[in-house]
Specification:
By secondary structure, this protein is an alpha+beta fold. It is built from three helices and four strands. It is globular and about 35 Å long. It comes from Astatotilapia calliptera (Eastern happy).
Amino acid sequence: MATPSKTPPGADPKQLERTGTVREIGSQAVWSLSSCKPGFGVDQLRDDNLETYWQSDGSQPHLVNIQFRRRTTVKMLCIYADYKSDESYTPSKISVRVGNNFHNLQEIRFVLFCCV
């Protein structure tokens, strides 16, 4: 999603989209996963249904790759995780990397989560 100004943490991305504060640009990208179980892939990851989800099926690291066809500025990335529902499947860390191709990615953000 792109946004013209700083968005407060915990803001509802759907509400921000309805008010015109942000614009969803994920549909302009090609999405791929390092692995997934049948029926738990990209479509479930992106379907806006909190009851469906991506489930990896392989060794770590588990990767979500989002590739845009042309240079694209992304100012906000929203990720929904629910520790109470997912427990051990909730990510403990997330790394956001950018680059011109898979071989020159540079980490721009690293988040380490603590389970409550």
